[in-house]
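Input sequence (255 aa), recorded before submission:
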Amino acid sequence: MRRLRLVALAASLLLAAPAARAAGEAPKPPPQDWSFGGLFGTFDRASAQRGFLVYKQVCAGCHAMKQLAYRNLEGIGLSQAEIRAIAAEYMIMDGPNDDGEMFERPGRPSDRFRSPFPNVQAARAANNGAYPVDLSLIIKARPDGANYIHALLTGYRDEPPAGVEPMEGMHYNAYFPGHWIAMARPLHDDQVEYPDGTPATTEQMARDVTTFLAWAAEPELEQRRAMGVRVILFLIVLAGLTYGVKRKIWAELKH
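Predicted structure, token format:
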């Protein structure tokens, strides 16, 4: 699983770099205060759950998340019953059966997220030649990932700045390299209804879906940081004990 994620991340970086260089540099995205930032940061589960809802209702129509299985949603605090219900909403191609034929069945928690298109060619054909990138590792595949994705989602402008010629079929975004992006503005106020009553503003949805994507790209982040803190504390204690032993040994020796 981890090896597949690393391979997918490397492929995303290799594919993204030439396009970014060709399009030109984008402004640095404004830094945001993320709950998962810093040495002791953790994922805001409520925000991640809302972010999954945004992905499910807004992003999943075009963008796949092939590295994620429905059972992984337990990591953002969803129950087994909720996960089974979510997976069952999708029909998954399976087989062959005893007759050698493929068939569809309701999804299971062990299934990976269903992709919106059967292949890359179908995805391009449905999006005027543009390929909607897989979002599984998008936060790690972009420099300053979380800040960049948040800025991209909130950086759309109805009109380009004065003196900038519009491009047919493209949309102006202040933080996209080159500023012109094929993807139309995906988020609009009150586009989704949050079960917890949180107002679904564009800013809130952008923060929530970014939090979800950050968790999806690195679900082991909290465990890794906790392990790092324990290792550092152990080394501090070990250093103290070593120094104490050294003092005791040398104190008994006459100089």
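Checked by second reader. The radius of gyration is 23 Å.
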